[in-house]
Design brief:
By secondary structure, the chain is mostly helical. Helix content is 67%, strand content 0%. It starts with 12 loop residues before the first helix and ends with a helix. The N terminus and C terminus are likely disordered.
Length: 300
């Protein structure tokens, strides 16, 4: 049975991740390596960990593990960077949210800016809830009539459970907290807490992973893998690597809706989610026009 990583839970986020990396590099136990790599792969789901994972060169650790003979290590090594780069790709390439934020915040009255609600929605779609809360506070200040609704939704954003290096909670404990949080979100919808504000109500539905509401914002999601990442963040944040292909395929089908066919890059991503490295290499044959976009996923 795999041992839990020997990491002091009282250190900060960066210190915790550093300790995991150090343990992985120093331990000779395959079970310990698997446990640590699984933890690091899970932390790649949380956008707030990006800077630390890059700073600690965790991607290199994942890539080095691809040459291991241990198949379990290889699977976790694939899951970690794939999710990290999908989230990174969503944040950096799907939409210019930072420039949009600068435009909105630089205006005389941000909450009245024509792109204000698009910005708030994109921030929620990308899991950047702290920034979304800050925007909602501006709406509350400008419109006292909706201040209470903004505060309640902001509290839901603040209390959403995430994988956090700062405590010793197990995956089961996290799932239990997340389920309680989800029930609270559902209760507010059932009680029509946000009925007076369709925009706030839609944000709450997004945070519940409501697929119909997510698909109503296709123009802000831009592509199926952004839809996939957002869907996982809000409907199954502890998804196991073995289930990724199912979610990827269903997300692709729902997003395209039979209106268009998958592109070559879609086939590469699907093979990667299925851990079919041979197919990924085959799809990335010389001259393939998907090599350039794929570099966004594979470059550090």
């Amino acid at each position: 049975m795999a041992q839990k990583p020997k990491v002091d839970p009282h250190v900060g986020r960066l210190g915790y991740l550093q300790a995991l990396v150090t343990e992985f590099q120093e331990t000779e136990s395959q079970d310990a390596k698997q446990q640590v790599l699984a933890n690091l792969a899970n932390f790649a789901y949380d956008p707030s960990n990006y800077q630390y994972l890059r700073q600690l060169q965790v991607l290199d650790l994942f890539l080095d593990s691809l040459s291991e003979e241990n198949e379990t290590l290889v699977k976790f090594a694939i899951a970690g960077p794939l999710l990290l780069h999908l989230l990174d790709w969503v944040r950096l390439h799907v939409c210019e949210v930072d420039s949009l934020s600068a435009d909105v915040l630089g205006s005389e009255n941000p909450s009245k800016h024509e792109s204000f609600w698009n910005l708030v929605t994109v921030l929620v779609l990308q899991g950047r809830l702290d920034e979304a809360r800050q925007m909602l506070s501006k709406e509350a200040d400008a419109n006292p009539s909706c201040a209470s609704m903004c505060r309640i939704l902001g509290d839901l954003m603040r209390t959403m459970p995430i994988l956090s290096p700062g405590n010793t909670q197990t995956l089961t404990e996290l799932e239990l907290k997340w389920q309680h949080w989800r029930e609270e979100c559902e209760r507010h919808l059932q009680d029509s807490t946000f009925a007076a504000s369709p925009r706030l109500e839609a944000l709450c539905k997004i945070m519940l992973g409501d697929e119909a509401t997510l698909l109503e914002h296709k123009e802000l999601l831009s592509n199926w893998y952004h839809f996939l990442v957002t869907r996982l963040l809000y409907s199954n944040p502890t998804v196991k690597p073995i289930d990724l292909h199912f979610y990827a395929q269903s997300s692709l089908d729902m997003f395209l809706g039979g209106e268009s066919s998958p592109e070559p890059l879609d086939n590469i991503l699907m093979a990667a989610f299925e851990f079919d490295i041979h197919q990924v290499i085959k799809e990335c044959r010389p001259g393939s026009r998907c090599l350039h976009p794929l570099s966004h996923l594979t470059s550090s």
